[in-house]
Design a protein that fits this description.
The protein is α+β, with helices and mostly antiparallel strands and 267 residues long. It has helices spanning 11-27, 54-61, 64-76, 132-135, 144-152, 192-202, 225-235, 254-257, and strands at residues 2-6, 31-37, 44-51, 77-81, 164-170, 175-179, 208-215, 239-243, 249-253. The longest helix is centred in the first third of the chain and has 17 residues, at 11-27.
Amino acid sequence: MSVVEVADGQEAAFLAIARQFSVIMAKKHYGRTDIVRDESSPNMFYAVRHWASASAAEACHADVDVGALTSRLYRIAKVTHLVNGVRRSDPASDNRRVRGAEADRRSGFDRRVDSTGRPEGNRRVADRRLGPRRLRGRAGKVDLVAAARRARENADARFSHFKVGAALEAADGSVITGCNVENATYGLTICAERVAVFKAISDGYREFTRIAIVADTSTLTPPCGACRQILWEFGGNLDIVLANLESTEATHRLKDLLPLPFDARLL
């Protein structure tokens, strides 16, 4: 399930993308998608994917046509993934219901709350389900900045001594990190952001939501022009989280950092 915040004036484009995605889902037997508009906000939609199976979900995520649609979507909307509920069965956790506190009872679609033994009886008084409106604006569970700080420690910056770390979040919540790697010829040096993107692409990821970039500077360091182009090409209008080694942070949309991007639409 995802929340889709469509840019002003792009509702028709979003609905066209949603229709094309539904056609692919049905034609390739991946499942189906329901799109619901938020009655209180005309630019807000909820997208619910009903997968035919875990294998169908994996095939859909790797589908080139789906990736192209997703890239178009991220250019006109901010997509926040609330629940990624499809996962393959883990034999080691099949008996999780009898292990009590040792199990992660809130993972995937297993969201039931057992009230046995509560003084209040069977009535649930806490741990309520978090719907889209309750989750709107909540911070994600993944600490991207911390991941980027750790990645920075691996940087090979023997010439500039300017270490940078990056952490890229994929649509399924996975985090792919990168650090800058310098070269004696200087021109072959590659930035942390591009390392993260290329690692993600090589591992099969095609959908991204945000990236954190950390450097040891008092002034927050934004991505260079080349990295902005690569981030736009593969991630669309990402959230760019900038931070240093202390606690200073700032978030920008990529379109604000790259207002007139060159991409496939111009070819």
